[in-house]
Every structure is written in C-alpha cells, then in structure tokens.
Amino acid sequence: MKEGTAKKKNSDGENKGPVRRFLRCLGPGLVTGAADDDPSGIATYSMAGAKFGHSMLWTALLTWPLMACTQFMCARIGMVTGVGISEVFRKKFPRWLLGLMCLGLLAANAINIGADLSGMADAAQMLFGLDSKVSSTLFGVGIAAATVLFKYRRIADTLKWLALVLFTYIVTAFLVSPDWAEVGRALVPKWPAHSEQWSMLVAILGTTISPYLFVWQASQEVEEMKANGQTTRKERENATALELRDRKVDVGFGTLVSNLVMFFIILVTSLTLNRHGLTEIESTKQAAEALKPLAGNAAYLLFSVGVIGTGLLAIPTLAGSAAYAFAETFRWKQGLDLKPTQARAFYAIIVASTLLGVSLNFLGVNPIKALFWSAVVNGVLAPFMMTGIVLVAADRKLMKGQPSSRLSLAIVSLTSLVMFAAAASLAVL
C-alpha cells in the first residue's frame, strides 16, 4: 500500500496554521530525543568539555543526522506495522537471539537508571540538602509508581512538558558569553589526536545513539495510535504521507534539541572548567559545583535543576523500553493504558529495572564505572539492533508496502557501521 493511498488514521491538522501544525506534530519524537539527554549523558558531555575543550564540539554535527535517521526509521516501523520493534523482530530472528537482546537492554538500562538516579540525588543534595540515598530512593520509587499508575496520555504529556527543562542548558551557555567566532572554528571536524579522545568519541556515540531509544520510539507510536482509538493491529497498520511527514518533523526537532543541548553542555564546560584547568570532572555534581565560582549562581542552579528534570524524563523511558522489549518478544500483554493486574509481567519489568537502579546507589557502585559498563553493553548491542532495524525497514512485506527510502537505509546502515567501529575501538582502547 503506497503512502499516498494508505488508510488515513488522523484527519485533522491539514488546514491548521504552521505554528499550530508544528506543535501538533510534537510527540514521541520530541520525548525520545529529549530523553537522550539524561543525567548520565550530561555527565559524559561535561567530561568532554572539561577534558578536551572546544575540540569535541563538532561531534554534535555528526550525531544529529545519524540519530535523526535512525529514530525516524524506528518511528516508521511502529507507524506502518502497528507493533513495536521487538514484535517485528520476532518474524525475522530466532527468539533466543531476541532474549539475549532483551537481557542486554535490561542490564544496560538498569545501570543507566542507577547512574541517572545518582546524578539526580547529587543535584537534590546540592539544591535542598537532601541525603543522596534517601532522594535517590524517593525519585526511583516515585517514578516507578507514576509509570505504573498513570495512563499513557498523562505520562506522554508530562514527558513532553519535561522536555522544556533541556533549554536550561542552552540558557546557561549564553550566561558564560562565548566567543562565537572561536566556536565556529571548532565546528570543523578533527580526527581524534590520541586514545583518550577516541575513548570520548566512543562514549559520546554510545550515550547519544542508544538501543533503548529505538525500542521506545516505535512502541510510543503504537501507544499513540491506541490512545487515538486504534485498538486492533489491523486498524494501526499503514501510515499516510501526512502522518509520516508530521512524524519526520517531530523526530527531526526532537533530535535537534537533543544534540543542541549536547553541544551547549560541552561548550559551557569548555568555557568554564577547561579554561580554568578543571579537566578531571567525573560527575554532574562536580561539574555543577565547579560552575558556581566560575559562572555564577544562575548557571549553577540551572545546571542542577536540569539534571533533576532530565532524570524525571529519561528514567521512565529507560524502564519502559526494557518492558516493551520483553513483552513484545515473549507475547506478554503490554501497554501503559492497561491496569497493573492486566499486564503484570510488563509492569514488573518497569518496577524491577527501576529498583535495580536504586539498589546500585546502596551497593556503593561507582557511577562512572557503571556508566562505562553501560556504554560497553550499549556499544555492543546498538549496531546489532540497528542492523536488524535496517533489515526490517527494507522488507516490503513486513513494512506493508511502505519500506524506508534507499537514502534512509544507506544512512542508518552507515550509522551501524560507525557504531560497530566504535564498539571495536572501545574494546581496543
């Protein structure tokens, strides 16, 4: 079925003004893109700016198109097939392989949740004087409870508004008055000069193009359609050209915001920490505390508030993506509109992955080492998943006659090769 003749699922929006149409487009793509800038990602970008100054700014130009094409391909799979990525994978790959993927995703996400909760707890301690173990537990339990008890539409709308917190980092960058001519010169790509820069490049790729985002993007497309009344798979199959165009705008903007925030965090820490010789930053807490005497209270407060806000946005995404992967692979009942008693196993994964993250803060696990091992798992898992995504997106039968374009397939294939190379480099370095 061609895009132009596909069954139209949403008829509104054609005649709205450009601003209203743009705002109506924003949804799963914005939330997924914003969730990429979680506290662990902020820590990685802060380390890049502190350690290497402006020299890593160009990476934002590299990661945006790669991330945007990959996420839109995942969105397209969900919109056209009417099911999540893991469920489509079942038609192409053996279940034992998908089981390993689910376990890897759960492990990486739980570690990432632990690191995010640690960053949020540090921010709460700086802002309000709360004990870090108490606040990390409160954050974890509260987020898990809200994800289980609230309906999809309420969760989606809350996450969409939380995306606004990312702009605190853009505002922070302007508070430190950058030399824009110097910044412009730094955007010319440079080959990493030594192993430490290679390691940082791998870390940036791993934290920006992550497997949990692939699963979450496609599954949220399905949740959106269910919330709009398309409760059966047949009703959800195929997408109109308008729907695909709207989602392309949504994903493009969401990934643009994500990579802009990455750019400005590197810039802020480069202009403040790196220039004052503070190159060994190992956490968001160190970055925020170092900003205070160098850039003032406003920058310190915005940076710290941003850590909490991004954690509230990212943790439901991390926990939810693991739950969707398991449920779709093993045919469990799933969906954020179902009651806990209707989808026990699905919600059990959400709660378990969050509580595993909480437990890491009581076991004395170093969050930086945790992030490293999370990056290792993601670095190995991501290119394999991306290869599967390309094979599915190119399959005319699975994609109901609406496969991805050759250009998109080429870009995502290139991205998977880059990620394979990154994983190999990480092993060597």
From TrEMBL:
Molecular function as annotated in GO: cadmium ion transmembrane transporter activity; manganese ion transmembrane transporter activity; symporter activity
GO cellular component assignments: plasma membrane
Record's keyword terms, sorted: Membrane, Symport, Transmembrane, Transmembrane helix, Transport
A biological-process GO annotation: iron ion transmembrane transport
Any Pfam family the entry gives: Nramp
Membrane topology: Multi-pass membrane protein
Protein name: Nramp family divalent metal transporter
Principal location: membrane
